[in-house]
Amino acid sequence: MQKKEREDVALFRFGVISDLVCSRLELGELTERITEKSQQRWHIPCSGRTRISTSTIRRWVRLYEKSGRQLSSLYPTPRSDRGRSRRVDEETILSLVKLRKEMPGLPVVRLIEEMVKRNLCPCGLTISLATAYRILKQEGLSGRSPMDKTDRRRYEAEYPNDIWQSDVMHGPKVLAGGKMRKTYLIAFLDDHSRLLPYADFYLSEGIASFLDAFRLALLTRGVPRKLYVDNGAAYRSRHLERVCASLGIALIHTPPYTPQGRGKIERFFRTVRAQFLSGFQGKTLKELNECLDLWITDQYHQRPHSSTGQTPFNRFANHVEMIRNPPSDLEDHFRKEVRRRVTKDRTVSIEGRLYEAPTRFIGEQLSLLFHEHKQDRVEIIHQGRSHGLLVPLDLNVNASVKRERPKQGCLPFDEVEGRP
After folding, report:
1. Within its chain, how far is the Cα of 191 from the centroid?
2. 313 lies in a domain?
3. What domain count does the chain have?
4. Which of 33, 234, 255, 407 has its CA 20 to 30 A from that of 211?
């Protein structure tokens, strides 16, 4: 406040308490007058409020009397916590500042999501964008560092399916299994046309959900030449690397803490929040995905994009001859791979389930390919060649199967010892 404004406030406060400090009032009468004043409406200088609480009036009286009846005691004083958030505690502020220093290039929206993901916010507290910006500004961390001279350039793929960008956005909570669960939007965006090959909300952001979305994207819009993702655990999995390699897709990871390379899909996520989620009224995951699919098909894909001047659908379809169709055995490219050594009783274990391998592979290490939803079909790969399928172990059948006899007339160990 300016000096004149502070003086106006002090004069107003004195006007409120003048009859209380200039008269000899009994305790009951003093309380009655203070109550009456608290019920009146006032034109308070430099404030939009119109009421004054009884505790505030009593505080003004105490300040005035304690100062020896000096008007200066009624001048407004700056808050001791001025410029600091009274809703966010000191530990949360320090966590936000530390995270910003670790991830200097991360947008503030994603910074808040990372805070929640790492459980750095007290239970029930959500930091608003305005609060986060204010805290970072006070710490001198709001803008780009003046030393940031990285050579970044805008780019655009020449044809559809040259480059797909993919990322995950934290979505709203939905009712699933009788309780509210958080959702995650896994999306793929074609860099040339801004078309969405596939986008869906899942209850997990793990590798299983990502691969399911990736498979459906390939079935829907063909095979890209490059897939551009960040450095999350799901994107660094060996399973994803093997899937991309087998399909001839270059898997490219964004350098740590530099989301600018995936700016197009980040921009799409902002559009989802502003134009789709703001009007969504459903409660279940099915309703959420049905509404999303309708919004993408009828609105997003049919509206001219601000950067290209064309609708994503038309721009993608203009070069449909460049689209590489997925292979007929696409499902097999998504099989999980494990390596196992065959034991002396010819068995191998996969996720707690036992299988039998041919005798010739005893002691050998095999690569085994299987679908998690079809664990009865496990393909054997040895020295780069396929050797058929493993047989699920059946102990009852094995009890009656005749064993292979050693060659050159050698007796089995049991018969040497005199046992049948």
Report:
1. 21
2. yes
3. 4
4. 255
In a domain, 267, yes or no: yes
Q: Would you mind telling me the total number of residues written for the chain in this entry?
A: 420
Query: Is pLDDT at 191 greater than 60 in this prediction?
Result: yes
246 HSE (CA, 13 A, CB side): 17
| pLDDT tens, residue by residue, 313-343 | 999 999 888 889 999 989 888 988 888 899 9
* Domain at 133, CATH number: 1.10.10
Question: Does 85 or 140 have the greater pLDDT score?
Answer: 140
Q: Residue 371: count other Cβ atoms within 10 Å of its Cβ.
A: 14
* CA-based torsion, 350, 355, 357, 359: positive or negative: positive
Q: Which CATH number covers residue 270? A: 3.30.420.10
DSSP state of 223: B
Q: Would you put residue 3 in left (φ > 0), alpha (ψ -120 to 50) or beta?
A: alpha
Q: How far apart are CA 141 and CA 177, in angstroms?
A: 42
> Which has the minimum average pLDDT: 66-75, 232-241, 339-348, 362-371?
232-241
pLDDT bucket at 187, cuts 50 / 70 / 90: very high
Which one of 112-121, 129-138, 302-311 scores highest in mean pLDDT? 302-311
**Domain membership of residue 291 as a residue range:** 163-322
The answer to whether 277 touches 363, Cβ cutoff 8 Å, is no
Q: Is the pTM of this model over 0.85?
A: no
Q: What is the pLDDT of residue 167?
A: 92
Q: Does residue 321 sit in helix, strand or coil?
A: helix
> Please, which pLDDT band fits residue 297 given cuts at 50, 70 and 90?
very high
Longest dimension (CA), the chain: 126
Among residues 268, 297, 322, the one where a domain terminates is 322
Q: What is the pLDDT of residue 108?
A: 83
Would you say the C-alpha torsion 105, 111, 114, 119 has a positive or negative sign?
positive
Contacts 24+ apart (CB under 8 A), 247-253: 247/218, 247/223, 247/326, 247/327, 247/333, 248/223, 249/223, 249/224, 249/225, 250/225, 250/226, 251/226, 251/227, 252/226, 252/227, 252/228, 253/229
Please report whether residue 79 resides in a domain. Answer: no
